[in-house]
Amino acid sequence: MRNLVLLGGGYGNMRVLLRLLPNNLPEDVRITLVDRTPYHSLKTEFYALAAGTSSDHEIRVAFPESDRLKIVYGEITEIDVENKNVLLIDGQAIAYDDLVIGLGCEDKYHGVPGAAEFTYSIQTIGRSRETYSKIGGLSAGSIVGIVGAGLSGIELASELRESRPDLRIKLFDRSPRVLRDFPERLSKYVQKWFDSNNVDVVSNSNITKVEPNKLYNHEEVIPVDVVVWTAGIQPAAPVRALPGEKDNSGRVILTQYHDIPGYENVFVVGDSASLPLAPSAQLAEEQAEQIVKVLQARWDNVSLPEKMPEIKLKGFMGSLGKKQGFAYLADISVTGRIARLMKSGLLWMYKRHNG
C-alpha cells in the first residue's frame, strides 16, 4: 500500500483531499494527514477571531471523513527526506511514499530586538486566541499597535475598530501609502476609511525595537499597551531545515511540478513554496490542483507535460469591518459594501463546499 502523507491541513492540502477523495484515489494508495488541530482553520479569518468579531467555531471546518484517510494529530519536528520519514514531537515516525508539505508560515521579525518576545500574532488559530484574550482584557483608552499594513494588518485594524471603538489603534506601515503595490484608488479608499474611523496610520515607519509597553519607530518611543505583529512571514522551522535551495524569504525553490529538485516525491504547497506570486489561500489552492494532477500522472505512469500551465489568480478581497471592503479582480477595483458582500459570499461558499 502506497502512503501519501499530507503535512498540515491548510488550504493547499484541503484542496488535495477534496480532489482525491472519495473517488479519485487509486486502490493501492492511502492518505495520512498530520496536523496540530482536529479541524481545518480558515487562516484568512484569523484577524476576526483576534478582534473578537468572529467566534472560534465560525472560522474552522471539519476535515473530510473517509476510510481511505487517516488523521494524526501532533507537532512535526523534522522532515527526513533521505529516509522518507516525518518525525513528531511525541516520538512517532510516519513513513511516506509521497509527501505534500503544507505547513504554512510563522512570523518573521527581521532581527528587530524584542519583537519575538513582546508582540502578539495572528499566524495560527492558537496564537490568534491569545491575541484576542489580551486585547479583550484591555481597558478603555488603551493603545494597540499593529506593525505591518499588509492585508492582515489592515483587516485586523478595521475589525478591531468595530469591535472596540474605545481603543486607540495605531497601524505602522513601512510604505508611504497603504496597499502601495495596488491601484491608488484602493489605497485612497482604505486610507479614507481609517481617517474616518480614527485609526492612526503611521506611514514610512521603521520599527527598530520592541519593549514592554513601548515601540521604537525610528528614534521615536511610542507608548503602547499591546503590539500585534503582521510585518512579515517565513516558512515553518521544519521547512527551513529541508535540503535544497531557498529564496530570499526562505521559501523552497521547486521544479515546475512543485516538487523539490532531487526529491520528486516531495511537494511543497502554500506559503512555504517559492512562487512568482505572493502567498495566499487562493495561490495554495491553485498550486494544489496542479500537484494532484502530477501525483495522478505518476501513479498511472503517464508522462507529465513538458511545461506546466501558468498559475493565474483572480485577484484579492479585503474587508474593512463587517460593512465595507475592497477588492481587485481582473484589473478592476471594487470598493464599499459590494466588495464586502463579495468576500462574505466567497467565505460562505468555501465553508459550504469544504465543511
TrEMBL record:
Domain FAD/NAD(P)-binding spans what residues?
A: 3-282
Picking any one GO molecular function of the record gives: NAD(P)H dehydrogenase (quinone) activity
Cofactor(s), by name: FAD
Asked if the keyword Transmembrane helix belongs to this entry, the reply reads no
GO BP term, example: aerobic electron transport chain
Q: Which UniProt keywords apply?
A: FAD, Flavoprotein, Oxidoreductase
PANTHER family noted in UniProt: 64 KDA MITOCHONDRIAL NADH DEHYDROGENASE (EUROFUNG), APOPTOSIS-INDUCING FACTOR 1
Q: Which family does it belong to?
A: Belongs to the NADH dehydrogenase family.
Q: What is the name attached to this protein's record?
A: NADH dehydrogenase FAD-containing subunit
Query: What organism does the record attribute this protein to?
Result: Psychrobacillus insolitus
